[in-house]
Amino acid sequence: MKLQSTTYLFLLFFFLLQVTPIESYCKSIEKQIETSQPEVLTPASKPQPRINGPLVYGCRPGHPFLYRIPCQGERPIRFSAKGLPSELKLDSSTGIISGTVPVKGEFEIIIQAKNSKGKDKRSFKIIAGDKIALTPPMGWNSWYAHYDRITDEMTREAADLMISSGMADVGYTYVNIDDCWSNAITYKKDPKRIGPPRDDQGNILPNFYFPDMNGLTDYIHSKGLKAGIYTSPSNITCTGFTGAYGHEEQDTRQFAAWGFDFLKYDWCSYSKMPGVDESLESLQKPFRQIGSALKSIDRDIVYNICQSWDAGEAPKWGAEVGAHTWRTGQDLGLELDKIFEVAINNSKYREYSKPGEWNDPDYIQIGWIGNARKLGAPELTSMPASKQYAFMSMWSLMAAPIFYSGDLSRLDEFTLNILCNPEVIEVNQDQLGESGLVIKKSEGSFLMVKNLIDGSKAVGLFNPGKSAANMEVDWKELHISGKYLVRDLWRQKDLSKCSDKFTIEVPAEGVVMVKISKH
Ligand code: GLA
User: How many Å apart are CA 407 and CA 411, to the nearest integer?
Assistant: First the structure.
């Protein structure tokens, strides 16, 4: 069939429309789709493999190694790796690399993932040395979902769900039990959580709901995931369960022997312990004690400290006492209405953010979460959709540890779209480890600008106001000049090539998160 010349012209026009960037974002204001309704912005993952996760991974020589290659795409996928040291083995069907970390050094690996629809390749550098957590740790924490209801069964289920939901395929790794796993002396709400704190040798005892800690971590590890545990330097934790007081080294050894890979150490009521005062030395003492104990243990354990928030400013000394991440504020569950303020406060400590050393503004609380004041059963969040995008964007731009603390068994499409956008997570996992610089704009709005390893910049345009606002990023603010490509990271879509500025409408209490790069 012969096509008319008008049809050719029409096709040519249509083609040009597809390839020509829309310059208007650079000059005038384009309306973005409102996100006050739960609109899913993250494009669905494709059937062909897409390898996600960090480009660098730190581990310590002689210790057990475990890494599940985060990869989206239709299973079965066959994984292969070039350059893997002989001490490490890759399971080609699960993508789990395990073994023992070889000698100190850097290993440049090329990972490949292949299925019937296509393949993906990616470089991955294993750095065996003193440092771990070279990119912000990612995972799940039981606290805001299950509080004092957490059990072994729920933790195993969380591991299953981390895999089946696809979260592990974008980098979520740690399955962390928070408070309430040990015994309490008295606990009216649940007598089954009452029991002896320790055995005759002083070993800490898990409560009725955790009958087999080794079995639990084995289960988590069998999926290529890692396990986390919680305690306090006080004799009791914040909720009244046995803490580590007087048994610090012994408990640390026990956690390692049980197979845990992450430890949260929470100040709680430690101020009441004998001899504790408000001096910096006193504030640091318990954290330093565990920090040193962890150094002599034959296991890589990420160490998260949760200090007395208003005292001591842990970002300034967290790394010195051996921690990899430290809280920068009080419990976020008690001030979820203030996430913009909490983020701005966290970013005050941006100079302390670097590979292996992370500011922790607490967990991502969206989807089904329980009221933190009442330790309530999970309910669907009332946080506006646009604010949830802003939440995840700020945490990514601040290189914060990304821990989802909500009910994994009730993940819906919208919540998963917030948690699992690989381009947004890539910003979080960037090798430089920089926490974004806050640039204040008019009426409470602000930018967060994060330099990335490839020379590009991730920028969040945040509008905490109650109505949509036009916002601008001026190249002068970014210290760049010339033509740059602006890509919308949530929509995974190139917007325009701009020469001096970028202007866009940002939804109320929301964000537009872009990557500004040469290509
Ligand atoms: C403190 C911590 C929380 C949580 C609870 C558990 O409040 O800040 O993150 O661990 O204790 O009791």
Answer: 7
